[in-house]
Structures are given as structure tokens and as C-alpha cells.
Amino acid sequence: MPEEQFPALAQFLQGSTFDTKAAMREFYLKSSRLFALYLRPILLAVPFVFYKEDSDIMELIDLLKVHYGSGKGPCTFKLPQNLEDAISKTQLPYLKKDPDDAQIDPHLFEFFVYHKMYRRLDKGLLCCNESVSYCDFDHDLISDALVDDVEKIANEFGYPKIPVYCDERLDAALVTLDTTWDKTTKRISCGENSACHIKEMKTGEQDWSLSYDSLDKLDDAFFRTLTQVEIPDIMMYIGDRINIWRSFTHMKTRYNKKKTPIALAVNACILSDAFGIGIEKMAEMSDLNYNLMRSTQEDFIRIETLCAANDMVGNLIHSLPIFKLWNLMDDKLLADADGQKLPTSESTIQSRYSKKYLGKSPGLSIYTLIANFVAANAKNIGLNEYEGHSLYDVIQGNKTNINIDMVTGDNHSLNKLNFVILDSIDVDYVPSIKDVKEAANNLYSVKTPDNYTGAIRSQGVIDKNLIKSQKRDILRVLLSLLLQENTQSNIVRKLNSHARYAGLKKALIEYNTIFKSTHVLNLIDNLGLRKAIRTARNRTEAYHQFQGLIRKIYRGVFKGKKIVNNQVSAHAVRLVANSIIAYNAIILNTVYERMLADGVRQTIIDEFARISPIAWSHIAFTGKYNFKKSNGD
């Protein structure tokens, strides 16, 4: 710190009078050149709008745009008297270099406008409707008139629950919450919940804790006994079995000579993208020509074709009889969604730094939906983006035949709306809550809290009228998500952060509290549910380990200079992983069908079901790739 600033710091530490605004004024004057270089071009180029007419901020923005847009400099800027009178008397002296000056300083006034703009952008009052993240919230939602057709739209998509979401569905959710309260507290008081242990404190109050059963680890010892198989052979076997090559269509629908790709070249391109080594390196390590791979990469390898191929492989696994054997719940399929942080070598808008996960390297997160070992969908998000805001998107984006009935996730999947918006599309959200006991301190009920005097107590009563008062806006949000007017991440982020929609946000959070309270009570009461959730989470961790291994085989990182390049690479990794899982699942299914034909006891079949198809000990990833051999040439 410069020596001349010592007295000011000493005054601040002693609690003496320290003029913070004056210090900020000095900083702004020193930084005025930087503001002119980096902030002023944004002000001039971006079409800002206020959510309502006759706003003071738009007058200030237009004044700066007219002045600096005409090529004039700060020295000729003069603030009109009517605008100067609108500035508060306490703020006005800090917009002048010297309080006795007659005119305000143009640089200080410019930053004063930027500061007001920032606060209004943060609250959702100031918008840019040409932006995705900062457009007006009303632009993210469907037209209010479409809410009148809610029944027709919901029935077309197969979700009849939405039209009655604030009526019959709300009543049913409240009845379920009340019943769950009665069942959970009764089983604890009668000693029927053997996993819940009650202890009397010295103060006379009751303390409680939950016990968990032993952890069942995923078993892959079965695959260690198998003969090693090269990765190109597995990709060709799965590709030929379901003809995934037909999903790789030419990027041009007309006027193209090659309408269908060469399977060998597609296989090589997929592996080069998955390993992160590029087609140049793959050409050196294989028996294929570089020009063939380059043309295939440019014409056939893109996000749409890779996702279509992944869906075909997922449908193959889903069609096997053994797929239902992996169900963790008797009549419902429980999926899990989680993100994995991986490094990038190039700087993109999506690449961010995270010292906790990646040290000094930038990276991104691959948010994947795992359903019975299958990577049903995935989405690249930045490390600065909250995972829970993308959960609805990955479930709705699942195009496989795998129907997701329930979904879990870690604490990062939790937000204030996910219970409601997932329930509206008939998906039960059952997150893995790290501290159930702490979550139980924020439970709400239908009855008043004095009805619960045991170890588990209610903190208040659900405000049903609050939810009903926002019925139309709630339906508008649910329909907007259903029709994909915008992504869930943008809509949820704005609802959580913008003060304009406080009533709607409060009603949705109140509705969300119904489902969250019911879920926490079920976690306390149901040991089987806790075990199923933990097993689903273990499957996802195994997949992440597998996905990370594929990327690290050749020390590959995401090398894309554009976001779309990294997305292609991420879906290529998913396709390789799904193909290996499908190969392993076919082997396990053959054994399973033989066991059924031989009348093997159910206890042995249940033990066999613990063998995980996420295994790679029998697969050779490295070496000289002979793609022509894998094709039988």
C-alpha cells in the first residue's frame, strides 16, 4: 500500500470517520480511461430497455448514447438541469471533482449511470431483449393468452396434471403430506422405524439419528476373467448390431455426393473426439487416411448425429431383459443426475476456473443423466452455473425409450423449484440430502405445529391460499418450460434472483416446500428409499470414473476453441461409454437369460444383478488402431 494511504487506513481501522464515497470517487477518476475503453462501447451497442415506460434510467442512458454516439468527447458533455435536479442532494457532491464545482464531472457521471444500470439489470428491471440471459422475463414465458388453452396444450404433451396443478393436484399433494406426517411420527413413536434412534436429552427434549445399512459395492470382478477386446472392435460390433451409422447424416440435405458415411471413418472420428487427440493424431495411430477422416469429421460428426447415435445405443440396452433387473424401485425407474468437472485447454465463454476441482486450469462440467447405468442425456455447463438449474432440461431432453419415473441427485441438484416443475411432468424428485437431520428442522405441515410434539416437529403451516393466488402465473411458467420457450436454467435463475416476481416466486417456493417436506419425511421413514438413492448415486460415480478414464487415456482435455466443439467431444465420450456399457450388458444378459432358462434360484439372480456393466478391465484402449481389421477387411 502506498505510504500516503496509511492515515486513511488507520482512520478506518480505528472506526473514525472515513468517507467511503470520496475514496470511490478517486478510484473512478483514475479508472475513467478503462471505463471509456470497455464499458462505453457496450452502452452504445446494446439496445437496453426498461420493463416499463417513463423511467429515469433510460433518460440517462439515452443522454450518454446521443452524446458519445455522435463522436463527442467528455469535455463537451453537459448534464441538463432537469436531470441534475433529479439526482439526490447527498449524491450530487460526489459527482464533482470538487464539491464547489458548478458542473458535474462527465467521467464520474458516466460511472454513476453504469452503477444504476448494474443494479437494475441484477433485479431484472433493465433488460436487453436480444440477449438470452438478460431479456425480459416475459419474453422467456409463453403469451399470457395461451394459458387459456392450458388443458389442450397439456393433453397434447401427455401431462394432464398441469391444468389442475393449483386445484386438484395441490389438494392431493397436501393430503399426501398430511398422511406422511401421520405415518412417520406414528412409526417412530411405536418403535416400528428401527433405523430411527430416539435419545432423551438432559433438557428433557428428544434427539434422534438415522442408521444406514452396509454399503453394497458395485461388482466388476466378472469382467476381469474375460479376454481382452480392442475398443474399435467393440464400437464396430455395437454399431453394426443396431446400425448406428444411419444416424450420421450429411450436414447438407441436398447437393452432396456422399449421403452415407464410411463406418470405419466414423468409428475413428468418434474415438479421436472421445480421447481428445484429434483426427491428425488418430491418423498417425491407425490404418486410415487423414483426408478420409477429415471429410467425415466435417460432414457427419456433429451434436445432432452423436446424440441420435447415443439414443440408439441407450434403446438397445433398454430392450434387453436384464435392464429391468437393474431397477432399484419395484415399479419405478430411479435415475440420477450429476456433473463431472473436466479441464479445457482453450478459453471459451463456457470455460471457467475452479481451484477446488481443477486447480489452476480452466474447465467445464458435463451434467449427465444416468438411468440404470445408461447415460441417457448430457449437457455441458460452465463451472459458474448451478447444476440444479439444468435438471429439468436434461430430463426433458431425454429422447431414448427409457422413461424416467424418479430422479435423484446430490445437494447441488437442489433448488427452490425443482420439486414442483419435475412433479408437473410426472417425475418424482427424490434428492440425496446430505444431512437429513438438519433438513428435518425446516419441515412444514397441513396441521398446526402443536399437533406434533415428538422428535420430528413442524415449523409452520403451508399457505394454500398463497399458492392459489398465483395460479395463472404458475401455469404460465409450467407451460413455458413444457413448450421449451427457454431453458429451465434461465427461467429458474431469473425467478430466484429478480425482485419483480416476488409474489410468484414466493408461491412456487411454498408449493415446493410441500414436496420437500414429504420427501424428507419419507427419507426418515423409508430405509429402502435411502438405500436405492445411494445405489443410484454410486452408479453415477462409477460412470464418472469411467468417463474420466476415457478422457485421460492420452491425457486428453477439451481442446475446442468454440463451445460447440467441446459439446461434440463430450457426446463422443458418452457414445464410447454407452457402447462399452451396451457390450457388457449384452454379455450379462446372455448369462441372465440362461439362468432363467435353467430355473436358478432368485437369491442367486439377485446376487448376479449386483454385477455392474460399467467395467473396462477387459478392454484395450491403447495401441495401434486397426480399424480395417475390426471391419473384417
Give keywords.
single chain, 633 residues, 6-stranded mixed beta sheet, two-stranded antiparallel ribbon, 29 helices, globular
Describe, in short, the structure shown:
By secondary structure, the protein is of the alpha/beta class.
Could you please describe the fold and organization of this structure?
The protein is α/β, with parallel strands linked by helices. The protein is 50% helix and 9% strand. Strands 6, 7, 8, 9, 10 and 11 form a 6-stranded mixed beta sheet that branches. It has a two-stranded antiparallel ribbon with strand order 1-2. A hairpin with a 2-residue loop joins strand 8 and strand 9 (374-382). The radius of gyration is 30 Å and the shape is globular. The mean pLDDT is 89.
* Percent range of helical residues: 40-55%
Outline, from the CA principal axes? globular
Terminal CA distance reads 72 Å
Strand residues, percent: 5-15%
Layout of secondary structure:
Layout: H1 6-14, H2 20-30, H3 32-38, H4 40-45, E1 49-50, H5 56-69, H6 81-86, H7 106-122, E2 126-127, H8 137-140, H9 150-157, H10 168-189, E3 196-200, E4 206-210, H11 221-224, E5 229-230, H12 231-242, H13 263-275, H14 278-285, H15 290-300, H16 303-319, H17 322-325, E6 334-343, E7 352-353, H18 355-358, E8 362-371, E9 374-382, H19 391-396, E10 406-408, H20 418-423, E11 428-429, H21 436-439, H22 464-469, H23 471-482, H24 488-497, H25 502-525, H26 527-552, H27 563-597, H28 602-608, E12 619-620, H29 627-630
Parallel strand pairs: 5-12, 6-10, 10-11
Antiparallel strand pairs: 1-2, 3-4, 6-8, 7-8, 8-9
Helix pairs in contact: 5-7, 10-25, 12-13, 12-27, 13-14, 13-15, 13-27, 14-15, 16-27, 26-27
